[in-house]
Amino acid sequence: MSDGRHPLPAIGLLLERAGVRALSADAPRSLVAEAARRAVADVRDGRVPTPDDEAEWDARVATALHQLQRPSLRPVFNGTGVVLHTNLARAPLAAAAIQAITRTAAGACNLEYDVDAGRRGSRYVHCVALLRELTGAEDAIVVNNCAAALVLALNTWCRDREAVISRGELVEIGGSFRVPEIMARSGAVLREVGTTNRTHPDDYRAALSALTGALVKVHRSNFAMSGFVAEASLRDLVPIAAAQGVPLLYDFGSGLMMDLSRFGLSGEAVARDAVRDGATLTMMSGDKLLGGPQAGILLGSAGAIAACRDNPLCRALRVDKLTLAALEATLALYRDPERALRDIPALTMLTAPHASVRGRAESLAESLRAIGVRCTVVDTEATVGGGAFPTARIPSAALALDGDAAALDAALRASDVPVIGRIADGRLLIDLRSVPASFDTALHGALGRALSGTAVRS
Fold first, then answer.
1. What is the mean pLDDT of residues 283-305?
2. Model pTM score
């Protein structure tokens, strides 16, 4: 409530003040009026104290206007230590991909036009040559995410027919997304085999019948099983599917395009190997370990891809020109693996030496302490995220901010560019492994501005 010492101004009078009127130069008057109403309501409802003078009222209206104009989708700093954080949009794009988006967005392009023939073309030809070259697949098609790729494959091959899958692969991933539910939505009839922890090739053989539409294998994504376990490999399933004359569908998920074992990241299938092992269709994401835009990529035989392309559902799942531009530019970087490691941010962050990450943290901490922010550097363990390498822990380093962790977290999230960290052992940590090195200067500025006047300052 207003404290009664200063009456609340009428909205009309507030809008006539010079300081508020000036805001209309950059915003519609109706939006400025809404900002004024919100500023008055905040005082009336007791959320903020009553301003002492007109200048403070002007500032309140300006702040309210800024909040109204702020876009819903905006950049953040990912200081969580989860490199491919699904809630924070997974992989940042390479500079080449960003340039491709800008170039393609600026005007018309040959999305569905065959320039050589001078007639209508197909959006599905883009990226295919690169995907063939890089993975060894006969053909490929790109849809809007990996779940869409799975739905398209199942709807094409298993509508009203049985999809045979191990109980140990009926996974749930983020956002309550469950593989069996998406399989049911595709029109497939779920045929579970084996047990949660052990499934053998003979379990698949025993399930085959005239109703079988396909064998399905799904990457377990964000968890691993150990102990008394067994599973049928992709190579085990290829001859079983072939003998029955049905396709083998493999939801490979992560989109890993190169072996990262020399960086301590092993146990994840590489796209070329998955294709070589013989699945009829292999499906993967574009925005996980591949490091590109959100996309669902289907790799496989020419006949299987043609069947998916001819499915009317394919049109509902198609990607736009910006996704294709970014994906093509990202894939092109893989022609030179060392360049891919250098230029694709997801790979750079995952493979950077611990000493490099620690050095960045030390440099940031020193410059922050110089402006009065109390912080130290601690060693941490980062994770990959994106449903890949679920057990991997990557040596990392973080800024540990002194003070009330919850209050600091709230202050950083309230920034124009929010800084998202994690609280561990009562301290707020900003893990540098998940922040591209090129963002360090901007991160320093965001931390300095957000922490001004808080308990972390000396």
1. 98
2. 0.94
